């Protein structure tokens, strides 16, 4: 995707040339490109360090390839950058170890996170990966709120969790995928049991 | 990402810390993976108060977060086994509690020993500001509280005990870091404590009934109070307290109290805003830091 066609996230275009703000270009793993203001990037410790280390000039930003974020898809990254633009310039909370942590979800964040749970989990994962402390806090708070007053069966549905049986089956499948011999050995063992033996040897 | 289980540890812990305690216990029941994560991970909960009742059929646990008054807390477990209690306390050990109460039913069998065993095997001491328990059983439990966090200790009467009973093991209690570091101590007057009065001078507030105290000890207490910056309240009951004897050391009392208390007022060193008021009535003596403006007009404040 060209720079001209890249989706611009929550950017006040009129303000750009006046203050000569720097807008960095990022690319998701599905090749969606985003232009994000320098101030918004500061909400992400990971990205902020990255752009500082790169030391791009305004020309570099336009002429060099967009910075690839290979672990996050465009749909999720759009939400991340919308959040960063909305909260740019705000202080980043510091964990002082106090409990309970009181986290209020602002109206903008609540609307932004009015998404299906799968995407919400991706947003949390992205907030953690990009080290966006307050986005991680509000998104985790939203997920925590979902648990209130639910039964285990309801929680299983809400959080898309497997039952113990499904969990075990998934683990077995993962183990087998890692070691194809495991299934053979298990089958051999079952066969011997059926034949009345209790030893491999 | 299709499931909460695919979340990495940091956000997972973040989510659990923002869940209310009841939700955390429910989440443990959802699947093995989540249960293992909750049991193996160190995270803080929103718990503020916890009350454990050791009953004849097991343990009952009531908890609450800081909002409601603790009496209206949620009963998480009724007649649960020591294994269940172990799980709850494991989660509790990461919380900063305001209040921890243990009560015992006389028909319980070995419940206190089980509780001690659980606490002994915890990886960290319990963190509470106030600990309340009945009788000498407190000695089994108190060492497992964080002595830096514990500020207030209350010892309640045993519900099947009698008035005037000795607090067994007081010598060990006085040597515990938790006792030495606490700021407030309330021992119910049903208990008689055999210890030196001076052992209690480090508290800001204290209520205790001693077996016997001498006139010299009362003078020492008064001296400690007028030279101290931390002492605020000291209520003492003991055998042999006599107004005539107190007059010998504190001078003529001031009588203006509607309940007939004898009172003495003393200046506190380097403090103009407060004085020491000593009240004597019904065999008990109270030492209290009082605002100077509250001293009755006719009363004499001694040096």
TrEMBL record, chain A:
Residues 166-201 are annotated as: Disordered. Residues 169-194 have a biased composition (Basic and acidic residues). SMART domains: Skp1 (SM00512). InterPro entries: SKP1, SKP1-like, SKP1-like_dim_sf, SKP1/BTB/POZ_sf, Skp1_comp_dimer, Skp1_comp_POZ. One of its GO terms (biological process) is ubiquitin-dependent protein catabolic process. Pathway: Protein modification; protein ubiquitination. Belongs to the SKP1 family. Probable essential component of SCF (SKP1-CUL1-F-box protein) E3 ubiquitin-protein ligase complexes, which mediate the ubiquitination and subsequent proteasomal degradation of target proteins. Regulates cell proliferation during embryonic and larval development. This is Skp1-related protein. It comes from Caenorhabditis brenneri (Nematode worm).
TrEMBL record, chain B:
InterPro entries: DUF38/FTH_CAE_spp (IPR002900), F-box_dom (IPR001810). Residues 7-47 form the F-box domain. This is F-box domain-containing protein. It comes from Caenorhabditis brenneri (Nematode worm).
């Amino acid at each position: 995707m060209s720079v001209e066609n890249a989706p611009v996230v929550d950017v006040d275009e009129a303000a750009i040339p006046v203050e000569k703000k720097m807008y960095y270009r990022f690319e998701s793993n599905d090749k969606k490109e985003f232009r994000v203001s320098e101030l918004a990037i500061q909400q992400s410790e990971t990205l902020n360090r990255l752009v500082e280390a790169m030391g791009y000039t305004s020309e570099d930003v336009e002429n060099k390839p967009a910075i690839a974020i290979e672990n996050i898809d465009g749909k999720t990254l759009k939400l991340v950058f919308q959040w960063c633009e909305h909260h740019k310039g705000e202080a980043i909370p510091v964990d002082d170890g106090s409990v309970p942590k009181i986290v209020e979800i602002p109206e903008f964040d609540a609307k932004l996170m009015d998404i299906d749970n799968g995407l919400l989990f991706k947003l949390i994962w992205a907030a953690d990966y990009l080290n966006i402390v307050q986005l991680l806090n509000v998104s985790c708070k939203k997920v925590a709120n979902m648990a209130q007053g639910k039964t285990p069966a309801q929680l299983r549905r809400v959080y898309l969790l497997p039952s113990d049986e499904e969990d075990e089956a998934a683990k077995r499948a993962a183990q087998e995928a890692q070691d194809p011999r495991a299934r053979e050995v298990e089958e051999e063992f079952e066969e011997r049991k059926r034949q009345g033996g209790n030893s491999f040897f | 990402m299709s499931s909460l289980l695919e979340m990495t540890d940091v956000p997972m812990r973040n989510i659990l810390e923002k869940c209310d305690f009841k939700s955390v216990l429910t989440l443990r029941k959802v699947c093995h993976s989540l249960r293992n994560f909750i049991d193996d991970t160190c995270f803080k909960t929103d718990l503020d108060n916890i009350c454990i009742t050791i009953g004849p059929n097991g343990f009952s646990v009531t908890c609450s977060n800081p909002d409601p008054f603790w009496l209206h807390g949620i009963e998480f477990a009724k007649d649960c086994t020591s294994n269940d209690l172990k799980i709850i306390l494991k989660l509790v050990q990461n919380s900063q509690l305001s209040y921890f109460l243990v009560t015992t039913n006389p028909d319980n069998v070995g419940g206190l020993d089980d509780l001690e065993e659980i606490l002994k095997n915890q990886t960290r001491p319990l963190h509470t500001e106030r600990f309340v328990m009945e009788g000498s059983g407190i000695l089994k439990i108190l060492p497992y509280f964080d002595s830096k966090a514990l500020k207030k200790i209350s010892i309640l009467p045993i519900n099947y005990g009698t008035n005037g009973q000795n607090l067994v093991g007081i010598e060990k209690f006085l040597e515990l870091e938790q006792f030495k570091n606490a700021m407030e101590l309330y021992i119910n007057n049903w208990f008689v404590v055999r210890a030196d009065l001076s052992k209690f001078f480090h508290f800001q507030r204290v209520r205790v009934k001693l077996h016997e105290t001498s006139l010299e000890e009362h003078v020492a207490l008064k001296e400690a109070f007028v030279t101290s910056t931390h002492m605020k309240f000291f209520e003492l009951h003991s055998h042999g307290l006599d107004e005539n004897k107190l007059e010998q050391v504190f001078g003529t009392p001031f009588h203006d109290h509607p309940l007939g208390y004898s009172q003495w007022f003393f200046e506190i060193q380097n403090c103009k805003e407060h004085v020491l008021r000593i009240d004597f009535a019904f065999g008990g003596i109270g030492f209290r830091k009082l605002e100077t403006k509250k001293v009755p007009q006719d009363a004499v404040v001694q040096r």
